[in-house]
Amino acid sequence: MNEFDIIDQFLNIKTGQRKDVIKGIGDDCALVKVPRGQRLALSMDTLIAGVHFLADANAADVAHKAVAVNLSDLSAAGAEPAWITVSLSLPEFDENWLMDFHRGLKKIADFFTVQVIGGDTCRGPLSITIQAHGFVPENVFLQRSTAQAGELICVTGNLGDAALGLKVAQGDLQVPPNVASQLLKKYYTPYPRVAAGIVLRGRATAAIDISDGLLADVNHISQQSGVGALLRWERIPLSKEAQSLDNEEMVMRAALTGGDDYELCFTVDEDELESTKQALETVGIDCIPIGRLTGKPGVRLLHHKEELTVEALGYSHF
Amino acid sequence: MNEFDIIDQFLNIKTGQRKDVIKGIGDDCALVKVPRGQRLALSMDTLIAGVHFLADANAADVAHKAVAVNLSDLSAAGAEPAWITVSLSLPEFDENWLMDFHRGLKKIADFFTVQVIGGDTCRGPLSITIQAHGFVPENVFLQRSTAQAGELICVTGNLGDAALGLKVAQGDLQVPPNVASQLLKKYYTPYPRVAAGIVLRGRATAAIDISDGLLADVNHISQQSGVGALLRWERIPLSKEAQSLDNEEMVMRAALTGGDDYELCFTVDEDELESTKQALETVGIDCIPIGRLTGKPGVRLLHHKEELTVEALGYSHF
Predict the structure, then answer these.
(1) Which of A209, A278, B52, B163 could be bridged to A76 by S-S, CB 3.0 to 4.6 A?
(2) How large is the ipTM?
(3) Do B22 and A143 make contact, defined as CB atoms within 8 angstroms?
């Protein structure tokens, strides 16, 4: 089976053809149409086996996650996903792996009504690069750099489950089976907050998806907006599974620095909090205030009454 | 230096900002505007060290080639390049390599007035994925599948030099220094036929860039158009460097099956040949007829008066 057959058989999803796709997979280029009045938002991310996912992970989950991380970036911009392109590097032709990959790709593409319009495949170390494309009007495009001091910092859901799930997957954390199953699901197959991003258009003053970890991502908003941030330890939302674990430090570390939950973090004017909560409720998504932007540079965390700076927390990776 | 610094310092080209780029590198998404009346053509290709380029190749040349192969796909569609996104996987932080990469990226981006609007970087086996985006009106988008029997098959320039250059680079071919220098240049830094693609809008009946090798790429047009092809051995254009080598079989094998020249192969109605030649002349590009599409399936090659089928040529890679 050659490169072109692999692309056609395993990357080309033949259902769910979109009307804005004039030419999909199969030529030198894809050709698409951006609707009038919309701008094109795009994001590209590479996942490498052993770095971004476990080398023995199920291929359907790998496909899911590779798409999810890119759609999560679109969500953070308030964009509505439309098309993806997929480049897959594989050490050897493995039909079972490819069938699983195709299944995972099809499932998430269908779920979000996105079409795979371009593909590339070659022999090499296992890695997947996906670029996602979506639509958003220019004046409601959400960015990191547009927040102001005084605004509230919110997130769309529980934090830390995916990082705890990774520990379970790696055998570093022993938990009851029902807890394990929930945490693993959050790690392997996160669902990006696409609907939240669209609802937050014109409401959030800035947004980012939590892919590097809450503290790092709040730091991105703070730095790029030229403000500081004060987060409250006790407001960080945790799932009942995370709360059931008898190790607060590990759980909070996961919530503050684990980045695989793909929730959105956004800022909102205090007067807009209630209407934003109600709007997010219409798409079944929570709006949880966890702190506030301040005029004092840096990200700080209020732990009961003690103030910790992010540097003092000793998380070295940002 | 972290991921974000690397992206900002080495992938973000700070000159040549385009007016259609609303937001470039530095947020979750880039935001761009497709001009009214234009469709968006896009192509993604991954190059892996040791597979698509020599692991010790100069990083400026690697950057050049990674962009060139993608712009070549746009050319084949008749699209005018606008933006690229770059994902770079590197085994370790190597400032000199990254400075060279940046220099090569900047040079070709400036040459073709394309802007790098998105970047991703991570630690992993050396590879580069680039997606190129360009504009083309829907009714003049060039495809592979639209050729008809009786039309002429043409190419835009000499074939085989890049494949011979690879042999020189690998030490498998000894040639005089001036010949080596020309062949190596064609292999390391091909210039995609962007202007030709634009000129061929509305003139060529089908087009492809020669990336898999002439025979394989003519086969793509033939198969996807449901016709056959008859090429003439003696019409295949060779550079004076290739002609100077005393090994016709090796040279012709390079010209017929080497794919790294990134010339365009296109089909044209016989009545349009002269006007097409004149139009390509205005951008300094040749138009060389090398055969004709036929009603008989398969790609055949007329070698003096002997007819060879492509299968009989024993080139196994397609």
Answers:
(1) A209
(2) 0.92
(3) no
